Amino acid sequence: MSIYSTGKNIISLFYALEKAVQVYDLRNDVVTGTAKKFGHILRTLLNIYPQVELVRYREYVFFNKQRLRFEIDGYASLQFIHDKMKQLRIRSLIILPGINEEELILLCLALKKNRDEFPSEFNAKRFAYVRIEYTDAEEETPDFLADGQRVKRIYFKALKVTKNLMNNLWKNQSVDVKSSKRVVHSLVNALSQDEFGLLALTAIKNFDEYTYNHSLNVGILALALAQRIGFSKKSLAKIGTAGILHDIGKVSIPRDLIYKPTRLSEQEWDILKHHSEYGVKQIIKTRGLDETGITSLIVAYQHHWNYDFSGYPFHGKETLQSTFAKIVRICDSYDAMTTARIYQPVPYIPSIAIRVIWKLSGQCFDPLLAKVFIQLLGLYPIGSCLEMSDSFVGLVIGQNEGYPTQPTVKIVATMQKDSIDGPIIDLSVDKGHKIIRAVYPQQYNINPADHLT
Ligand SMILES: [Fe+2]
Ligand SMILES: [Fe+2]
C-alpha cells in the first residue's frame, strides 16, 4: 500500500474512532475493534517511520509530509480531521512508536473538548506516545476560501448522489429522486455565489469515476452556460437535472461494454449509441413525466444531435433540437474531450478543446451557444497549464470577464520542473507576464487537483 493510501486509511480510522467514542460506551466492540485496527496500522507504519505525523496547513492536511487530496472516497473523514485540527488550533499531531489502543481512545475523547479546554485536558492525560503542536496565531480563513469550501462540499455531495443514482439504476433498484432534486437546487445556488469555484471543480478529472464525474460535470457546465444566457431559476434546475441525466441510458448497456478496456468495435459502438433512446425509458422510470422529467428525456434523446441535422439517433430536418439539448451537446463534447478515457488515454488540453468547439460551431454546435460557452470558459479554461514568458509555469485558476486571453494564474512550477508555491497573477491587470503556450500539466509533474481543491 502506498504512503498516500495508508494516509487515507489512517484518516478514515481516526474519524471512525472519533465518531465511535461519541456514540458508544468505551467497552463497546465498535470502539475496541476500531481502536485495534487503528493501533495496528499505526504500529505497522511505525516499524518503518520514526513517527506518524498529521499536519494541517491552511486548508490542507499532510500525512508524513504528503498532502492528502479531498476526493469523493474519504472526503468526509478528511474534512472532519481538518476541521477538528483547525478548531482546536492543532498544527501537528505526532504519534510515536509504542502507541496503544488506550491512548488512541483517550486522544479521541480529548478531541471532543472545545478549543479552550483541549490543551489542559490533553496535558492532564499525560500522553506518552502522542505529541501536539499548536498554531501560534489565530488563523482566520478569508471569506473567499470559506466560500470555496462550501462549493467543494456541494460538489462532492452531488457526485455522491449521482453515483448512487446510476448505481441503483444499474442494479435495477429504486432511486432517491428527492436527494437528486435537492442536489440540483444546491448547485444552482452555489453557481450564483461562486461560478468559477464550481467550474474549477469540473476541471478535476477522475479517470476511474468517469461516468459519474462526466455526468455531474456536464450538469454543472450546462447550468453555467444556461445562467449566462439568462435562464430563469426554474429552467436552471431543469437544465441541471437534464445535464446530469443525459447519459443515464448507459445504465441499460452491459457494464463490460461501458468499461471495456480496449477499443470498441463498430458493432459495439452501434450498441452504445442506443443510450440516447434508453435514456428516455430510464428517465420516465425514474422521474416520471413532470416538467423536469420531460426536459430531461428530450435532452437524453437529442444530446448527440448536431446543428447541421447529423448525429444520432437519426432524425429528419423537420424535428428541431431543443435549446436544452443544444446546450448539453456542447458541454458533453467539451467534458468528453478534456477527460482521459480508455479509448482516449491522452485527453485534449482544455484550450485545444475550446478551439475544437469553435471550429465545429455551425456544424455540430449552435454558433451562438458555442460563443457564449467560449466566453464563459475563456480561451484558457480553469485547470489549463501555461508556460509563461518569465520561465515559470502557471495554472489557470480563474477567468476575467471581457479578457478571454488573460486569465488569472497561479505560478506552480519552474520550467525546470521544480514545483513552487508561487504568486497568483491576474494577467488582465499585470501586463508584464505573457502566455507562451498551453501544455499538459503532466509535462511539469503538476496535478491540477492539488491547486484547484
Ligand atoms: Fe451520450
Ligand atoms: Fe456524455
Please give a handful of descriptors for the protein shown:
single chain; 453 residues; alpha+beta; Hypothetical protein af1432; 3 domains; 5-stranded antiparallel beta sheet; 18 helices; 11% strand; binds fe (ii) ion; HDIG_dom; HD/PDEase_dom; HD_GYP_dom
What does this protein look like?
The chain is 51% helix and 11% strand. The model has no long low-confidence stretch (mean pLDDT 88). α6 crosses α9. The chain is globular and about 80 Å long. With 453 residues, the chain is of the alpha+beta class. It has 3 domains: 3-134, no CATH class; 144-377, Hypothetical protein af1432; 385-452, no CATH class. The strands form 2 sheets. It has a 5-stranded antiparallel sheet with strand order 3-2-1-4-5. A 5-stranded antiparallel sheet has the order 9-8-7-6-10. It binds fe (ii) ion (FE2) (2 copies).
